[in-house]
Amino acid sequence: MRVVVIGNGTAGQTAAAAARLSSRGAEVLVLERHPYPSYHPCALPYVLSGKLGLDDVVERRSRPGVQVIVRAEARRIDPERKEVTFEADGDEERVHYDSLIIATGLRPVLPPIPGRDLEGVSKLWDVEDAERILGWLGEKVAVVGGSATGIETAAELATTGREVTLMEMMDQLMPGKVDPPIASAAAKALSEMGVKVMLRARVEEIRGSGGRVTGVAAAGGRFVEADTVILAAGVRPESRLAAEAGLPIGETGGLVVDDEMRVVKDVYAAGDVAEVKNLVSGRPMVTGLASTALVQGRVAGENSVGGRTKYPGALCPYVLRFGEYELGGVGLTAGEAFRLGMEYKTGSFSGSDRPRYSPDRERVTGWFVADPEGRLLGAQFFGRRGIRERVALATLAIRMGMRIQDLRLLEYPYNPEVCDVAEPAVVLAEVLWRKYFRRTSHL
Questions:
Q1: How far apart, in Å, are the Cα atoms of 421 and each of 354, 401, 417, 425, 443?
Q2: Nearest-angstrom CA–CA distance, 441 and 443
Q3: Tens of pLDDT along 348-364?
Q4: Measured distance CA(60)–CA(405) in Å, rounded
Q5: Is 409 exposed, middle or buried (0-12, 13-18, 19+ CB in 10 A)?
Q6: What is the CATH number for 247?
């Protein structure tokens, strides 16, 4: 049996390995368009600051039983013949598959801004982009887009002493990903780090002189001097190849899959190119997260060789690290719940993560979104440490259908050198319970 995987990112790598582990006799072939087997895109901001080198983010190790062909650009998929046509080193070749896994990920969508072709302007998407930026990185940098990548890139460059401006066209950072209280905390932290945060800053033009960028003009007559502009705004599923093959594309632009990550018979999709169900809202979505792509890749890989593993839907837990700060979340924001017409309750808590007498205690801020019965729908946290662990707790709570009433009674491990006896996530649940659910609760 031959399994062909298009794309060797997190989803593709995991799918290939899972297929091989599930069926030792399977021949697994991966087509990767880059000249290296894979790389770690989430680490690219740390390359720009010098914390990591270019070689550090390139993955060259091979997995037993998996053949990876680099510089192999997939050109056509023929589901009837069960063939993939690809180009490698200028030659066109065809490969037959018994099962096909499409893991082509996302592609950047650059806004049609005049001047984006000037020298000194680039996206930060792959190793080649990072190498190009390092070649002409100046002292005044404008980062366009207050996404997770934009925030981390701006923060990392600020640690090098550069003058950095982060420009976001909406009225908060990470719009659609976090709610205003957490977004405001992140903006304040960035400002403390020396990043100038500009909101409602729709970029109208990138200006230059002699073919080289000199600054960015934004709505409202604002102008930011810059010798380097990094575009971190806009992505879409890389589903063009699949669409040309007549495979079903959903409303998000991703490949429509069932709960086994199957597109059509013998064709699967995983990772950012797959349109999956949001586990909380039930709405279709693409995820854009490596950790979620790993789970989807595992499901697709196992099922491509005869498995029947089910993917329940996406919760999309994430965590950012910028400077000394961490920000993370999972599930629905209040903004998303409002747009979907869902009833919801919200609550926040800000307090110490260690006992009051601890000299190195830090403040942590939490935000919960719950339905009218108390079932947790989403959570967001901000602070200097422990954010990942709290997001992981909330992820499990949502997955298990836990209510605020359950979370307030959750036992938590305690040691004064590690944490406070009153865990902030549990205190947050208590705040919501007393505000909304105490009179209706039987607990």
A1: 8, 25, 11, 11, 21
A2: 5
A3: 999 998 988 998 899 99
A4: 48
A5: exposed
A6: 3.50.50.60
Residue 377 neighbours by CB distance under 10 Å: 22
Q: How far apart are CA 429 and CA 435, in angstroms?
A: 10
Which residue in 337, 343, 285 sits closest to 315, CA to CA? Answer: 285
Tokens representing 101 are 């896994």
Alpha carbon distance 348, 320 (integer Å): 20
Pairing of strands 212-218, 222-225: antiparallel
CATH number at residue 332: 3.30.390.30
Residue with tokens 């995987």: 5
Supply the pTM of this predicted model: 0.94
Q: Looking at the 3D structure of the chain, how many domains does it have?
A: 3
Residues 429, 430, 431, 433, Cα dihedral to 10°:
90
Do 11 and 102 share a domain, yes or no? yes
Q: Indicate whether 198 belongs to any domain.
A: yes
Give the containing element (helix H, strand E) for 151: helix 148-158
Q: Residue 67: beta bridge partners?
A: 29
Provide the β-strand partners of residue 277: 284
Q: 99-123: string of b/e by CB count within 10 Å (b at 16+)?
A: bbbbbbbbbbebeebebbebebbbb
Collapsing DSSP to helix, strand or coil, 406 comes out as helix
| Pairing label, strands 318-322, 267-269 | unpaired
Look at residue 406 and tell me if it is in a domain: yes
Per-residue pLDDT at 432 exceeds 80: yes
Q: Which residues contact 221 (CB under 8 A, 6 or more apart)?
A: none
Which residue range forms the structural domain that includes residue 412?
325-437
pLDDT at 270: 98
Whether 172 and 184 have beta carbons less than 8 Å apart is answered as: yes
Q: What is the pLDDT of residue 61?
A: 81
Statement to judge: residues 277 and 138 lie in one domain: no
Cα separation, 422 vs 433, in Å, equals: 16
